[in-house]
Amino acid sequence: MSHLTDQGTGQPARTTVRQIAQMWWPLALSFLLMSLEGPAHNAIVARLANPEINLAAWGGIVFPVALIIESPGVMMLSASTALSKDWETYRKLRRIAVALGIALTLIHISVAFTPLYDLVAQDIIGVPKEILEPGRIGLMIMTPWCWGITFRRFQQGAMIRFGHTKAVGIGTVVRISSVGLVLLIGYLLQRVPGIVVASSAVAVGVSAEALYAGLRVRPIVRTQIRCAPRNATSLTLRSFLSFYVPLAITSLIFIFVSPIASAAISRMPEALNSLAVLPVITGLTFVLRSPGLAYNEVVVAVLDEPHAYQRLRRFAILLGSALLIVVLIIVASPLADLWLGVVMALPTQLLPLARQALWLSVLLPPLALVQSLYQGIIVNSKRTGSIIESVTLYLVITVITLGIGMLLQSLPGLLVTIIAFNVATFSQVAWLWHRSRPVVKALSPELQVTSAE
Known about the structure:
Radius of gyration: 22 Å
Strand content: under 5%
Number of domains: 2
């Protein structure tokens, strides 16, 4: 039965490549807008009083700590997209999402409002004393973050499952607009500390998007989810945990890759220059990878349709080729220098290193798309243990490559890190492809005829 092309009529339908594109582009726009949110925060805080302290508090304490705490809730998007097929399952998932959001919020409060903050920020992270109190204030303001992320990602998954990807894009516009308004007010006032402006912008933006998602999903629940045929297999807490825990661990592992890379860069040639350029390169590559990252949820939602795999693969080939061409145009043209030297204001002496790193990054955007295709297949099949295997492989390959770079001491740390990301991503995609083959062959009889398909 198609929830995506028939808008609840219950009539079987084939999802075309054009319909896949119509599902994908609002999600891609949503990911793209989210990828630009970080640079906007940094640009405003850098123009307020004491930018060094406030930027350090935001980037060194508030955002990474909040990100680690809320990471178990991030994968509610994939879980809801894969599982929210009927009213009973939706209600059970909603209870789980509410409980998870409350639990993560309590953890956040315990870190932000108790002496546990000093243990985390001072003893574990070891940040300079100058940013301890600004970081504490920022983390307190970010209290709505965990609840907002978990709740809105759950509701967005239901929207995607029932074909309302444009609503997800509109929600992102609501969030970005709210964030931009708070940042603009803070910039115009010039009296509010940058850490307060940045934290308030994120808290308001996430809360606004969660409120929109909660309101927007109501007619979908009323007209589609309640009317959907009951799933043959009832969702239990045990089955949910076996599906979700690998996804949550996956999110957590990815978060820890960044500090590992920073620690390795600090022990390789041109450490200072590499650390200065790294966030600029990863920020741009995240923007370029966002169209591919958005494809994961499309695959999860569409794969149940007749002959969907062939069309999903065809669209992935078309989009991947287009992504590679766009990335090559950016890297090989003056657009790269415009972004690096003008928009991001990198000092002239860092531009050669940044250009080299960009050239090494050209395969990451299309690889993200291929990863989303195979990962979406696995999530749809509910065999999520394979995903944690692939992420563990990614982490191991990254650490080994960085270790070789530290031993050889022959390349700048930034270049070794980008090479590590390439090798690790390729290995992860290869593993996901391997693990997805049995699922692909079982999707339709014609795929069982030839193992080459």
